[in-house]
Design goal:
Blueprint lengths: L1 E7 L3 E2 L2 E5 L2 E5 L2 E2 L11 E5 L4 E4 L6 H4 L5 E4 L4 E4 L2 E2 L4 E2 L3 E6 L4 E5 L11 E5 L2 E5 L17 E5 L4 E5 L10 E5 L2 E5 L11 E5 L4 E5 L10 E5 L2 E5 L14 E5 L4 E5 L10 E7 L2 E8 L3
Parallel strand pairs: 1-27
Antiparallel strand pairs: 2-5, 3-4, 4-6, 6-7, 8-9, 9-12, 10-11, 12-13, 14-15, 15-16, 16-17, 18-19, 19-20, 20-21, 22-23, 23-24, 24-25, 26-27
């Protein structure tokens, strides 16, 4: 049985969602500008058996988690937070930190910084390495910042960042997944145009190459892997903050082709999509910013 489950989040947007120790967590983001309540939890966990969200009992400090356009992934022993825009300075940051969530405490550890500040990027883990991909480095006053091509690889054991081969074109607000040992990245924006192009990276060869483009151009979308296929969900098709889109499409890697699947009932963007197993049900959980 398949279930598509939607849930709005408590006065936060542009957060990240990940699996950690068999639970689903929503982490960080921004408080609504009209809601500056200091007690809003920045870490919540989803309980599949009760279909409910709860805040973790020991919350990290707000300044460690109130970040815009950052990325977070589970490392097995903790949660890695990379880059983003600091809302206090309105500048991209190269800050990298690890959050250790325990039943009786939470600890934030500062790690080696990115080689370049970036936000609006993608973050994927593979074989004890994390890859920070694309994004943007500066916030322009009038124009949309350009998407960048650069990619950095983080060695978790050595706490060291190094540059690897850049993408074929700059991308920000794209979506990326790991599948069959390779990193796939979809769409995004180069700073002027919303992209339909997609690329795949082979870590063994340190090489990017194009794959078939999506049927729709999109940015601020999400991607999830299920049954060997990649599902691309929602987003926007206009760089000037246009309305969200309902469309969903499916990429089949073995055939390098795309198929359309049923669209969502509501358009949405800046959301998170995650696939996990709860009992005997397959759950695709989508958390929306707005639609």
């Amino acid at each position: 049985m398949s279930l598509l489950y939607f849930c709005s989040f408590v006065e936060l947007k542009r957060h990240q969602m990940l699996a950690f120790k068999s639970d689903l967590f929503a982490i960080g983001g921004l408080r609504d500008v009209c809601v500056r309540d200091p007690v809003i939890p920045f870490v919540e966990t989803f309980h599949g058996q009760t279909n409910a969200w709860d805040s973790v009992p020991y919350q990290p400090a707000v300044q460690d988690l109130e970040i815009d356009s950052f990325c977070a992934v589970s490392t097995g022993s903790g949660v890695l937070l990379v880059g983003g825009v600091d809302p206090k300075t309105n500048r991209c940051t190269s800050r990298v930190s690890s959050i250790e969530l325990r039943d009786d405490s939470s600890t934030v550890i500062q790690l080696s910084s990115l080689l370049f500040p970036r936000a609006g990027h993608c973050l994927v883990t593979s074989a004890e390495k994390a890859y920070a991909i694309g994004g943007f480095q500066t916030l322009n006053t009038h124009d949309s910042p350009d998407g960048i091509r650069s990619v950095e690889r983080y060695n978790m054991a050595k706490d060291v960042w190094t540059c690897v081969s850049p993408m074929s074109e700059g991308r920000k607000f794209a979506a990326a997944v790991l599948l069959n040992g390779k990193i796939f990245i979809f769409g995004g924006c180069d700073g002027q145009n919303v992209l339909s192009s997609c690329e795949v990276y082979d870590p063994r060869l340190d090489r990017w190459q194009y794959i078939s483009p999506m049927q729709d151009s999109r940015m601020r979308h999400s991607a999830a892997v299920h049954d060997g296929k990649v599902y691309i969900v929602g987003g926007v098709s206009d760089n000037r903050a246009g309305p969200g889109i309902r469309s969903v499409e499916c990429y089949i890697p073995e055939e390098d082709c795309w198929t359309k699947v049923s669209g969502m009932p509501s358009a949405r963007c800046d959301h998170q999509c995650y696939v996990c197993n709860v009992g005997y049900k397959f759950v695709a959980h989508v958390m929306e910013n707005s639609s």
